[in-house]
Amino acid sequence: MVNKLIEKIRKTNAPIVVGLDPMMDYVPSFIKEKAFKEYGETLEGAAEAFWQYNKGIVDAVYDLIPAVKPQIAMYEQLGIPGLVAYKKTVDYCKEKGLVVIGDIKRGDIGSTSAAYATGHLGNIQIGANTYAGFDEDYATVNPYLGSDGVQPFIDVCKKEGKGIFVLVKTSNKSSGEFQDQIIDGNRHLYELVGEMVDKWGEQLVSEGSSYSSVGAVVGATYPEQGKILREIMPKAMILVPGYGAQGGKGKDLTHFFNKDGLGAIVNSSRGIIAAYKQEAYASYGEAGYADASRAAVIAMKEDIASALA
Amino acid sequence: MVNKLIEKIRKTNAPIVVGLDPMMDYVPSFIKEKAFKEYGETLEGAAEAFWQYNKGIVDAVYDLIPAVKPQIAMYEQLGIPGLVAYKKTVDYCKEKGLVVIGDIKRGDIGSTSAAYATGHLGNIQIGANTYAGFDEDYATVNPYLGSDGVQPFIDVCKKEGKGIFVLVKTSNKSSGEFQDQIIDGNRHLYELVGEMVDKWGEQLVSEGSSYSSVGAVVGATYPEQGKILREIMPKAMILVPGYGAQGGKGKDLTHFFNKDGLGAIVNSSRGIIAAYKQEAYASYGEAGYADASRAAVIAMKEDIASALA
């Protein structure tokens, strides 16, 4: 899967992921009103509003970007109808040719981790038939349970040509509480996790590529740690959240990339999907929310390109 | 929620959780055949088989136990229809008066963790109406992202009278890769996480109780660590997986309990729900699978009682 991702990054010249993390406050009134008229003020109505909102954004930006990252929590808060909207969003983005990174942060052990991997990246045999549950291209994975939790994902990735991004150093303020602890008196926990990502990644490097389909999540808000982790995990694509709304800037991103200009893909969620709520894009108004998102993607692309130049 | 859990443990005299983690191999043929006849060999058919299988077990054991722990991964592997079966299982167990621990191992940051908490433990306002997504009583939470990831769950628990179990030392073989690392040269990462659980727990101790609705997950397979963690987290109910099929025995469990005889609740999944596949219960046959589960619960109750005596 990493080859497909890199090919799309090269083609769009944009190491950018748009985070499809809808919140009701972001969804323009005209979309909500239509959805509620059809489905009532219900979970189904809210889920329909999320889906129509996403569709508008995807239609407006899909030609500019290689990938999207729907955050499943936002859909899961609406229960089953929300997850139906998540699935619709995944399917639609794949139809549009985008690489879909399911931001699911799952992680368990043995057969349970295998079940998550099957549900999100794999196929399940039922009698004589084969089905896919959610069928994202990539999933994010939490490493706290160790190799037992990660290996089942890698096994499914091998079989299905999919990939994972393992949480290493997350973008949030308190990420250091555990991740920054000093291990053995010589390095941080996130460095040890990075070493494991590098090791796990050996299993998913395809011929002729210098990258693995085992990637890592490292927050834009921690550029110094990004620099260290870039060296520890040379084969890993780094998925970088925290750009924009969380405070990360283009210049913070340079260390996340390798010398080949690849190796990182930067996520922005709110900054793109709710761009019309920012002063800079206010002139688009609610009706032009999707065009505002397109303008924000173009600005982000330029910000990153100039930082990397 | 911890008060309700303790009351039910006292009433049943059984610090036991039955893990409702269905796998197709466990489901008796007559259930699968009926489900496939009605829904075809589809995700819906498999989900119906899981649900009917669960219902049989719950009907057979609900009067003996305080709580169940459905593992959402097993349902998630069947995509949306699987999650519908998960929701049905949660609702049915609550109808039967059981405390439902959603084994979801979620964990993210800020608004995203809040969305998971809302979806699983809380309520969401849509227009003039309020809805619950999955509405479990407890959820398991992954701590790797730090307080930013856990606090939103605690906030929802406060509001809704719910609880969480935070992963501290998991039952699997490789759990030590990160959890056993020595921090600051003086203690293990799992001890630091335990200290945080104790601290987080202060927010959810109800009047007149010595326990908090912030509990911890510590595997039966690590009794020595259980002893240490019992001291670090005196207020935490410890959810103990790894008994039975994973190798934990009754005698390994004593250290997980406080001197009041409370403080832990021991999970068994396969050992109960697939009891009819064990030699000891083979005489029940497929048709008697639920009665075999009942017999296995009684045996587990006796094993734990004699270990604690």
Major β-sheet of chain A, in short?
8 strands, parallel, barrel
Q: Using a beta-carbon cutoff below 8 angstroms, give the protein chain pair with the largest interface and the number of residues from each chain.
A: A-B, 72 and 72 residues
- In DSSP terms (H or I, runs of 4 or more residues), the helix count of chain A works out at 12
Oligomer: homodimer
Share of residues in strands of chain A: 15-25%
Shape of chain A: globular
Task: Count all strands of chain A and give the number.
Answer: 12
- Regions of chain A with pLDDT < 50 over 5+ consecutive residues? none
* Strand order of the biggest β-sheet of chain A: 1-2-3-6-7-10-11-12
Number of domains of chain A: 1
Distance between the termini of chain A: 27 Å
Order of helices and strands of chain A: HEHHEHHEHEEEHEHEEHEHEEHH
What's the pLDDT, averaged over the residues of chain A?
A: 96
Which class do the helix and strand fractions of chain A yield? alpha/beta
Q: The CATH topology of chain A, please?
A: TIM Barrel
CATH architecture of chain A: Alpha-Beta Barrel
**Helix content class of chain A:** 40-55%
According to CATH, the homologous superfamily of chain A is: Aldolase class I
Rg of chain A, rounded, reads: 19 Å
**CATH class membership of chain A:** Alpha Beta
